[in-house]
Every structure is written in structure tokens, then in C-alpha cells.
Amino acid sequence: MPNEWDVVFCSATGKLRDTSNTTKHVRKLLDVAGFDGAVGHTFRKTAATWMDADPNTSPREVANQLGHKRASMTMDVYWAVSRILDRSSVDHAATVAAVR
């Protein structure tokens, strides 16, 4: 819903929502959907990982998307897991999963 703050999670009337109430609501929805233990930040980290996987997206672009001033901060926080994994291993796992 369009709103004057350009936020994603606004109330039905377009007003700002309370952060703690939004967090509780999102957690309930995630639990119902079977994502036990997931939190709102889980999606942020997933988005950062997907952007990292795109060879045409620079760390600066990812940092901008996430609202970080420094790309180095983004890389330190969000690349911790994805950079440990060898790309060929990830590609192989994706191929195996697609076949099944």
C-alpha cells in the first residue's frame, strides 16, 4: 500500500506500525507457514545471499540495497556463509536437487 514513509509494513490505513507488533505478527505467519525459528532478518540475509550469487551484482550494489554505508560491512556480515562454500559444490548440490 502506498504510504508517505515508503515502508513495506504499514497498517491497513497506511500508517506506521509498531515494530514489536510487526515482529510478533511476522513470526506467527512464519510459524504457520512452517518456517519455525525464522525471523524477519532471515529474509534480509536470504536476499543478500541471492544478490551475492549474481556475478553481475557488486558488493557496493548489495550494500546500497541493504542500506549500508560501507560495502565492507555488508561483506563481513552477509558473506560469512556464502563465501565459505565452494561455488562448484553449490552448483553440484543444485543440480542434484533439481534432478530429484
UniProtKB/TrEMBL annotation:
UniProt KW Kinase keyword: no
Keywords: DNA recombination
Pfam (any one): Phage_integrase
InterPro entries associated with the record: DNA_brk_join_enz, Integrase-like_cat_sf, Integrase_catalytic
The UniProt record lists the keyword Chaperone: no
Tyr recombinase domain ranges (all copies): 1-91
Gene Ontology biological-process annotations: DNA integration; DNA recombination
Record protein name field: Phage integrase family protein
Organism the protein comes from: Blastococcus mobilis
